[in-house]
Recover the amino acids of this structure.
């Protein structure tokens, strides 16, 4: 073990000497490794950051939640589009029937939304808000957090009271620091009282944030617009109980929906049951392709760099042939010479890999602090970069090291 550590130390010293004595030659050879590792890790870092941001948005939908909708989130290639067009929208009748029949559901809610609405409070207004209307069980099917105020009471939902809950950005834009709860705002020509403010969530990759949303009771929305109309994207949201698998909840929901819609055995479903795993699987496929593309592009650069490292090692063997002869004449074994040059090649590749990782780290700082886009260099990508460096070092250094270990000591000393 002590000998191995000594070998590693000497190898790094030889590598550093090679870098110091032949700066341009070594730098040009390391450039391929540096660029290759930079491309591989930069792509992996970007993909992982994007995937985690989108996945966190998807997770807001709930891992145990199903959405009864007209259109599926993912289209299969063989299904004719006109069959989707002819499907009925999820209706209030569907929701009421499911609410009574579902045994495995923690909550069942009916939701509609009207996008790009203008809200007013005195002389202030906010444009582009999303107006959502939902039944009382909305707080059972979604995870709601409040920074001020409360959720609707059961009486407010039943009677369709003119109340609302606003997002944090809406509150900031309308009230400019004033206390929002208790204030009256104008929504689609109706005056409603703010009873709560959603907790600020920040920007979201998939637009799932509540920051620019306004929520009103479903019975209030009935008097403002047609809640069964397709233009308001009606859906029934079903969240399963915590101790029940999503597959079981889905099977019960599918059976109940077919019963409610009076579909005969063998007849195709006229509704879609959407869930987060559908999006997650598509994300994995998409980002997997990007990852492989980055790996191939970076791999070619690393391969070129590997040839450069192998060239340096052959030159290094040639320059130190007499030293090798002396070492062997003093009793150095073949594996000692082999490991010495292999470790030197690994050391050189690690230098190139560390430079590549350093460039990626600088890039993450640039995006985070200059462009205000948070990019994270994950530990697994650092390990991946170092792993690639070690692997290329072992491959590129083996043959020069093997040729050095097979030298005849007498001929080597005389060279």
């Amino acid at each position: 073990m002590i000998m191995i550590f000594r070998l590693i130390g000497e190898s790094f010293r030889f590598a550093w000497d090679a870098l110091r004595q032949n700066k341009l030659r070594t730098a040009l050879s390391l450039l391929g490794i540096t660029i290759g590792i930079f491309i591989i890790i930069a792509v992996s870092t970007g993909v992982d950051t994007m995937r985690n941001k989108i996945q966190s948005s998807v997770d807001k939908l709930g891992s145990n939640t199903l959405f009864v909708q007209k259109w599926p989130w993912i289209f299969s290639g063989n299904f004719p589009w006109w069959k989707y067009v002819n499907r009925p929208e999820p209706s209030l009748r569907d929701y009421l029937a499911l609410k009574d029949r579902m045994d495995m559901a923690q909550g069942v809610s009916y939701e509609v939304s009207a996008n790009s609405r203008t809200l007013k409070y005195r002389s202030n207004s906010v444009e582009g808000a999303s107006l959502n209307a939902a039944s009382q069980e909305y707080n059972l099917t979604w995870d709601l957090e409040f920074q001020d105020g409360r959720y609707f009471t059961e009486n407010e939902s039943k009677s369709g009271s003119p109340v609302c809950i606003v997002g944090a950005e809406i509150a900031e834009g309308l009230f400019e620091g004033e206390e929002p709860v208790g204030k009256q705002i104008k929504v689609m020509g109706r005056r409603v009282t703010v009873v709560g403010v959603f907790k600020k969530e920040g920007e979201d990759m998939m637009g799932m944030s509540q920051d620019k949303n306004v929520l009103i009771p479903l019975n209030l929305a009935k008097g403002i617009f047609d809640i069964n109309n397709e233009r308001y994207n009606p859906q029934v949201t079903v969240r399963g109980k915590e101790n029940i698998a999503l597959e079981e909840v889905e099977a019960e929901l599918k059976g109940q929906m077919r019963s409610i819609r009076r579909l005969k055995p063998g007849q195709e479903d006229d509704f879609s049951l959407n869930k987060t795993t559908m999006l997650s699987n598509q994300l994995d496929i998409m980002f997997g392709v990007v990852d492989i593309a980055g790996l191939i592009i970076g791999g070619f650069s690393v391969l070129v760099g590997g040839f450069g490292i192998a060239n340096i090692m052959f030159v290094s063997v040639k320059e130190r042939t007499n030293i090798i002869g002396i070492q062997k004449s003093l009793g150095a074994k073949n594996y000692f010479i082999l490991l010495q040059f292999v470790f030197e090649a690994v050391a050189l590749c690690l230098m190139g890999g560390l430079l590549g990782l350093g460039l990626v780290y600088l890039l993450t700082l640039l995006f985070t602090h200059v462009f205000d886009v948070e990019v994270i260099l994950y530990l697994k990508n650092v390990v991946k970069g170092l792993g690639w460096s070690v692997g290329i070092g072992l491959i590129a250094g083996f043959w020069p090291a093997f040729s050095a270990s097979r030298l005849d000591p007498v001929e080597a000393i005389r060279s």
Q: What stands out?
A: The two ends are 33 Å apart (CA to CA). The CA atoms of residues 142 and 227 lie 20 Å apart. Residues 88-270 form one domain. The longest strand covers residues 105-121.
